[in-house]
Design goal:
GO terms for molecular function: hydrolase activity, acting on carbon-nitrogen (but not peptide) bonds, in cyclic amides; metal ion binding. One of its GO terms (cellular component) is cytosol. This protein is an alpha/beta fold and 460 residues long. It contains twelve helices and 18 strands. Helix 1 packs across helix 2, helix 4 crosses helix 7 and helix 7 runs parallel beside helix 8.
């Protein structure tokens, strides 16, 4: 069945154009002004913008908590992604203790294949970097799983020798290291000081993770990546000094920078001292000051920051966050955001007068390039998947948990006013969101095997 989208303004990472789109067999067949009327379905996009479907390269599904519960998963959260304008997600799958990386991926895949409303791929969070785990990389990369999460802090932290050994094997095979950069020793020291003083409210989560903790770890991660000659993405960078450290090291090693909407629109005032409700903002790294938030926008404007991901964790405040009621160190880290990322960043960038091609690059094109999805995903071009967002720039609405598809009982962005919103979403040519409502079905999403940077000649 052929579909024709008429009268819209197409926006890619490199250009704007007023044109029609012809879709055939799930692909973009033609872009032009006189395509004809032979389509079976016609969609009028008059006064609308047409973006490539968003790619959220950092989400967490079905995250286990200390009480045995898990966060929300593919069944609800991928519908939320679709409603928000995201058509592809990359899920960080935890290597379960006592299991191989492949076994953990198989578990996630068994859920996603029947539940995912959008296309998906996997990273692996490495918890046991022994010889057997490292040997698995050689099989996983050809299967399309080309990126691996390495923690430098929290319960999943690897030491420098483990990090270096894993990076060396990734470098040999062309994989990408995705690093959570915080100094675990600094954090543990400050947490112990707070515990001794009975300072256990969520406010002290912010106090226990200073900028120095993040930036020291960024420096060390760069040193390790250079030693191993390993391509690396530094996840969820929260401050401009960290951005500058990375950009200064890029000449000799491919290093990419991810940040998140919460660091660009929220700040540390959310950690009101003494109030447990601020557990909603326990994320790592934490929110920074208003001054740091404004500085971070420099990295958006000068194109140093490569991608914006949600770092979505579908926790509930009433259940999961209460696990740390007596001690902030037990509060599950993370918060929901998969549904709001696309429009939140559209609104934030346009408010600051930043070009919409930069928006597309941050939320779709550059993630596709870094993670080996381009040009199948992340752009609007003949031959690419017809993953499209038809967007109404005049729609005004307010973010509220009561109206979100995400399963969480809260949103960190409660009450923020938005201008611009999703009208329709197409996944491989099929309409899955119409008038802001999900109209697809679970299981529409497909696993997408990814290329390595090496297979793309390292070009992003």
């Amino acid at each position: 069945m052929k579909k024709l989208i008429r009268n819209g303004t197409i926006i890619t990472a490199s250009e704007y154009c007023r044109a029609d789109l012809l879709i055939e067999d799930g692909k973009i067949a033609c872009i032009g002004t006189n395509i004809g009327d032979e389509a079976d379905v016609k969609i009028d996009a008059q006064d609308k913008l047409i973006f490539p479907g968003g790619i959220d390269a950092h989400v967490h599904m079905n995250v286990p908590c200390s009480d045995g519960s898990v966060s929300a998963g593919y069944d609800t959260e991928t519908m939320a992604a679709a409603i928000g304008g995201t058509t592809t997600i990359l899920d960080y799958v935890l290597q379960e203790y006592g299991k191989s990386m492949q076994e953990s991926i198989d578990g996630a895949s068994a859920l996603a294949v029947n539940q995912a409303a959008v296309d998906y791929g996997f990273h692996v969070i490495v918890t046991n970097p022994d010889a057997q785990t490292i040997a698995e990389i050689e099989d996983l990369i050809p299967s399309g799983i080309t990126s691996f999460k390495l923690f430098m802090a929290n319960d999943l932290a690897l030491d420098d020798q483990q990090l270096l050994k894993f990076m060396e094997e990734l470098a040999r095979l062309g994989g990408l290291a995705c690093v959570h950069a915080e100094n675990g020793a600094i954090i543990a020291y400050l947490q112990n000081k707070h515990r001794q003083k009975k300072q256990l409210e969520p406010y002290y989560h912010f106090q226990s993770r200073p900028l120095s903790s993040e930036n020291e770890a960024i420096n060390r991660a760069i040193t390790l990546a250079k030693t191993a000659d390993c391509a690396m993405l530094v996840a969820h960078v929260s401050n401009l000094e960290g951005v500058k450290i990375i950009t200064g090291a890029r000449a000799s090693t491919p290093i990419y920078i991810e940040s998140c909407p919460h660091y660009l629109v929220l700040d540390d005032e959310e950690y009101g001292q003494g109030e447990f409700t601020t557990a909603k903002y326990v994320i790592s790294p934490p929110l920074r000051s208003k001054e740091e938030k404004e500085k971070l926008w420099v990295g958006i404007k000068n194109k140093a920051i490569d991608i914006i991901s949600s770092d979505h964790n579908g926790f509930n405040y009433a259940t999961h966050k209460q696990l740390g009621k007596e001690d902030y160190t037990r509060i599950p880290n993370g918060g929901p955001g998969i549904e709001q990322r696309f429009t939140l960043m559209y609104h934030a960038l346009t408010e600051r007068g930043i070009d919409l091609s930069r928006f597309v690059d941050l939320i779709a094109t550059k993630p596709a390039k870094i993670f080996g999805l381009f040009p199948q995903k992340g752009t609007i071009a003949p031959g690419s998947d017809a993953d499209l967002v038809i967007f109404d720039p005049e729609l005004e609405w307010t973010i509220t948990a009561k109206e979100q598809q995400q399963a969480s009982d809260y949103t960190p962005y409660e009450g923020l006013r938005m201008k611009g919103g999703v009208a329709k979403v197409l996944l491989r040519g099929e309409v899955i969101v119409d008038a802001g409502k999900y109209v697809g079905k679970p299981g529409d999403g497909k696993f997408i095997a990814r290329q390595t940077l090496r297979s793309q000649n390292g070009k992003v």
